[in-house]
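Loading example: each entry is read as two labelled lines plus one structure line.
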Amino acid sequence: MATTVVTPVPTTEYSGGTIAREQVSLWRDGWRRLRRNKLALAAVIYLALLVLVAIVSFFWTPYKPNFIGACDTYQTPSPAHLFGCDELGRDSLSRLMAGTQVSLFEGVGTALIVLVVGVTVGLIAGYFRGVVDAIISLIINIFYGIPTLLVALVLVVLLGQGLVNIMVAISATIWMDMARLVRGQTLSIREREYVEAARASGAKSGKILFGHIFPNALGPIIVQATFIIPVAILTGAFLSFLGLGVPPPQADWGGMASEGTAAIRYVTHIVMFPSLALSVTLLAFNFFGDGLRDAFDPRQRR
Amino acid sequence: MTRGTLIYIGQRILLIIVTLLVVSFGVFAAVHSLPGNAFVSAHLHGQDLKDLLHQYGLDRPIPIQYWDFLKGAVHGDLGTSLQIQGEAITPLVIRELSVSMELGGSALLITVGLGMLFGVLAAMRQNTWVDYLLTTLAVIGYSIPSFVLATLGLLVFGLWLHDITGGAFYYPIQWTGTYGTLAELSVPAIALGLYTSGQVTRITRAAMLDVVQQDYIRTARAKGLKERVVTLRHALRNAMIPVTSILGPLIVGIIAGSVVIENIFGIPGLGKEFVRSITAHDYNVTVGVFTIYAALIGVANLGVDLLYTVIDPRIRY
């Protein structure tokens, strides 16, 4: 910025020094507010640890997660097997660690898919309005009128039980919220002066959509995307619980909870740990999302 | 009811019909393009399998099969099950729907009742420990998956209560059908309802805090009305509008939860039937149950919209 010519304010009219506060970007400002929120900060730390566990579990777990006969069937927690063993004698701690990967992939992957689809559809509907908007809105309304989990079940059976297919299936049931949010934002932002100025100076629609409207709707979009993660993890756990999640022997929390529920008459530790992991993780994402929303839009604080 | 309202209802019913057509065709096409068929377990080959497929009309093009399904559906006939051969789906679905409605209805009552109670309490004691406790409980509430709550319910009421009372009093782990239905639905309904009640708490609290700042509340207080009357009749009634707006999504959420809950507790409802039918390739049942659910959600959403006009007479369509 050294070459920028700064026109000094004539001292006769103004002599109070600079009144502009330090320039802070949207991100820095958001992060500063987020840090002040203790619950959100605790959630961020927990989630960082969770990501660490997921990465570590790719390279190392106490036992091989799918190794049958690491210990006795239904063995209760002991120093050698901190979280006990399941009905096939697999080490529960190792499986819990490996299950972290599935939950995080499902959550973040789905959020990314929804981000791309929802933002694109929402921008198009809000910007072009008219017939395009009417058709997209009708599709959104139809999707709102169908039982989401059942759609996901049908899609998983149709596409097959792979991790990516599961993400696609879950995305298909929750993209509407994002699309509707972005559409609303677009409808309001497209009337602002700077968009008009861009249009007047001959900018193409794509440039206006992604260069002007999208960046200005980014705050609410990020908050919405954060709330999609726990919903996606939960839906993924539902699918696994019903036996239509990631295919065995891959460990995942929903499937482990399902196995544990089946064994609940004999032992309770099998169902306890994955249920706890799932609940605390969802809680952390919800606290994080709440904190993020307050940080990006303090007016909406509830 | 004004003319505008009738036109609005007409439009909404049209949307429901369009939704049902699109959804049922989508699911119909989807399940019929699945690899394998409902008769895999019968181990039929060659001509026998062809004959059976022909008998059920499964060897014809999908649009024609769908047309036949539609013709039956408008007369209330959803076809016959492929797995339990010859069983008519309509009576089956109606029987299971009544069980699911009882479960979902009780869960909805718990959700709305508990959620609004907590929300009002939190708003009235804003920024006190009551508020913090209830709002934190609400977030915890919708972070615990309903199947975790269900398992906990089984553990506490099914196993521990059984042990403590020496087997005299406990909740049966699997559906028996011999107890009074509502008593037997209690634990599943609570597990299902608690999860969504957290969202109602948050919405109610936010709405109440918004409403109590309005001028008409000050007027009501200035008139010398009792605080209880101000809260319940003036504030709560207005705060119910945002709460009503999430009833639709709540119902969808409860239906999703009930699919899992019914499978855990072995409750013979639509959700259990759906999972069975889809894993067994029982196409006709899958399509039938799906269509019923979509119709249910459509009617519920319409009902919610009409509820607005009851709560707030200013709203007209």
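The CA atoms of residues 13 and 80 of chain A lie 78 Å apart.
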